[in-house]
Amino acid sequence: MEGIMDQRSKPSRSRRNERGLGRRTADTSPLQSVRDDERSHIARELHDDLGQLLATLRVDLNLLERQPALPRAAATQVHSMDQLLLSAISSLRRIASNLRPRALDDGSLYFALQAMCLDFARRNPLRCELDVLESELCFGDHFSTTVFRIVQESLTNVARHAKARRVRVAVRRNGASLRICVEDDGVGLTDEDLRKPHSLGLIGMRERVQGLQGEMSIRGQGGTRITIVLPLPEPHNEKAPRGAL
């Protein structure tokens, strides 16, 4: 983990490209909190409205399936419909969770990160290690959401492009700042990668970092290592956690 920030003292084409990413996001970071609020609203609507409708429909199907006069062929079809409905409910929960993890609404960045890394390892053929302490992750809503999204976008980049077998996520306090490090043992990032359209994932991360006056560095040799340092928020500058979905 040592020596990550030393890359700042070595100008390179990668560093110049990173500065380019920063210029492209300078005018968009104020919109990030608006996007997060909209995500929360959509997630809440999905859960409270559409989710409840699907759950009610499933109850009705189960009642129909128990009718003694129901022909066997119809019962088989109803059972098949119930399984499809169950899959739809599962997909809806996953989408709502990606938009706004319920653990964040309960005020727990620690459990939200744990759940995300477990789900990431389940869906991808690689090992995901998480280095966090629950006692260090007690923040308000805005800061917690920013940290969660940074880690989420980092893992998405790993899954799409790294061809890695292992990824390690460390989120630790360091004095008056929070240090986030996501590193993998994949193919690494080249200067060309930073100029491609998929660098939009990095742009989204940089938007969030700049919105909190933080710093972000990328090392693309021998795997990719993304390091972010965020100043810890003042208690009175943080919003209270929202209510659960």
Automatic annotation (TrEMBL):
Entry's Gene Ontology cellular component terms: membrane
Domain Histidine kinase: 41-234
UniProt superkingdom: Bacteria
Biased composition (Basic and acidic residues): 1-26
Record region (Disordered): 1-37
Organism: Pseudoduganella rivuli
The keyword Kinase is annotated on this UniProt entry: yes
Keyword presence, Transmembrane helix: no
Cross-referenced CDD domains: HATPase_UhpB-NarQ-NarX-like
Keywords: Kinase, Transferase, Two-component regulatory system
UniProt xrefs under SUPFAM superfamilies: ATPase domain of HSP90 chaperone/DNA topoisomerase II/histidine kinase
Membrane-spanning residues: none
GO molecular function: phosphorelay sensor kinase activity; protein dimerization activity
Protein known as: Histidine kinase domain-containing protein
